[in-house]
Amino acid sequence: MEDWALIRHLHCSEGLSQRAIAKQLGVARDTVANALAGDRPPTYSRPPVESAISAAEPRIRALLTAYPTMPATVIAERIGWTGSITWLRERVRAIRPEYAPADPADRLDHQPGRAVQCDLWFPPAKVPLGAGQVGSPPVLVMVAAFSRFVTAMMLPSRVTMDLVAGMWRLLSDHLGAVPHQLWWDNEAGIGRRGRLTDPVTAFVGTLATTMIQLKPYDPESKGIVERANRYLETSFLPGRTFASPADFNRQLAEWLPIANNRLVRRIDGRPSELVAVDTAAMLTLPPVPPQVTAITELRLPRDYYVRVAGNDYSVDPSAIGHLVEVTAGLEAVTVARGGQRLATHERLWARGLTVTDPAHLEAAARMRQRFQQSHTGADDVDHPVRDLGDYDRAFDVDFTCTATVSDATDVGGEVA
Fold it and tell me: What whole-number distance in Å separates Cα of residue 32 and Cα of residue 82?
């Protein structure tokens, strides 16, 4: 390419002859003649040779016509491919767009105060839950879409009331305002098939906001919170150990201000600085807080324990047989009857445990002793015993034996 352009320049602009050009450039005179005769640079082309992947392409296209999303490894198995899997993947990647429909992702323009994206992140770390149990409880992550301000906390479970309590905690304590919309995916605790659960409906009604459940197979719509999950996993989690869920939340609360002070290139700003603009356009917190605890009414059984989230908690045994209200929050489990509190326990994160208040145990022992004494005393009372002879005299019955041995002998030699 360079020689062709130089040859034409020397001949047309400099006026050199073909012999002078060949001598100056050190090339053959035929090369100079061919360069001057052609109107475009010479190209080298090799006749096409059919490769193994080209021979298999019709069968690949036939499979993609019927199954546009079939993986390349499955295609290799179906066509009996024995060559390099890398070549096959490259060819499948090149021709698959002709058969698989495209899924365009729109650019979303998030206005201040409009939306907060919510999601559950399950950290790949073993957190001690107590009683020798370990697990990876869910972490509720909420990100303001405009400012990219991240809030998060670990929850005991992903049931509805824990999700509602977690959302209220993050909105009231960290943002201090309510967005116009809360975006979730199809989380079962929030709702399914376009219908929200009753506690979530009451929650958004109290906050005067709107719950948006995104359609399936649309991860780009909440890509902001998805990136926050990945950021937590790559920047917060490495190198950390946790003694308990409370320790996890403590370390997370200490780290989040650092994360929110980072420079986000997409918005050309820091979330900690832009969050004020975000919250200024949001709704104010409701004057009455929403219901964020699970309340269950039941009749206290004889063993004076109630079950909450797989654990049994003791209750004052004086309420046995009565209806009691069991209230389960993120931190505590309380039991009350008629406005009187009967039990308060710290909520456990482990499962299959029994929590007993020593005061309840002592009260049950005293009640059991009184019950046993009342029944034992009734059996020990002395009742008057009547002489059976009174009945004999009343019915003129005389069982006195007057026969002598000799009289008895006279009757067949037998003694009566």
Answer: 48
C-alpha distances out from residue 319 to 298, 299, 338, 347, Å: 11, 9, 11, 21
Torsion sign, CA atoms 246, 248, 251, 256: negative
Q: Are 335 and 326 in contact (CB under 8 A)?
A: yes
| 39-43, 93-97, 271-275, 382-386: the lowest-pLDDT one | 382-386
CA dihedral 72, 78, 82, 86 (to 10 degrees): 0
Strand order in the sheet with 181-184: 150-154, 139-144, 115-121, 181-184, 210-213
Residue 206, both tokens: 């109290």
**Beta strand pairing status for 195-196 and 305-308?**
unpaired
Bridge partners (DSSP) listed for residue 122: none
CATH number of 115-280: 3.30.420.10
3-class secondary-structure state, position 203: helix
The rounded Cα 346 to chain-centroid distance in angstroms is 22
Q: What is the pTM of this model?
A: 0.72
Average pLDDT over residues 134-159: 97
Q: What's the Cα-to-Cα distance from 356 to each of 25, 132, 198, 300, rounded to whole Å? A: 99, 18, 33, 15
Residue 104, helix vs strand vs coil: coil
Q: Is 338 exposed, middle or buried (0-12, 13-18, 19+ CB in 10 A)?
A: exposed
Count of CB atoms within 10 A of residue 86's CB? 9
59 Cβ neighbours under 8 A, 6+ residues apart: 78, 79
Alpha-carbon distances of 219 from 150, 276, 333, rounded to whole Å: 18, 27, 36
**Alpha helix segments (H runs only) across 160-242:** 160-170, 198-207, 223-231
Element (H, E) at 195: strand 195-196
How many helices and strands (H and E) does the chain possess?
14, 16
For residue 335, which phi and psi values (nearest 5 degrees)?
Answer: -130, 135
Question: What does R_g of the chain's alpha carbons equal in angstroms?
Answer: 44
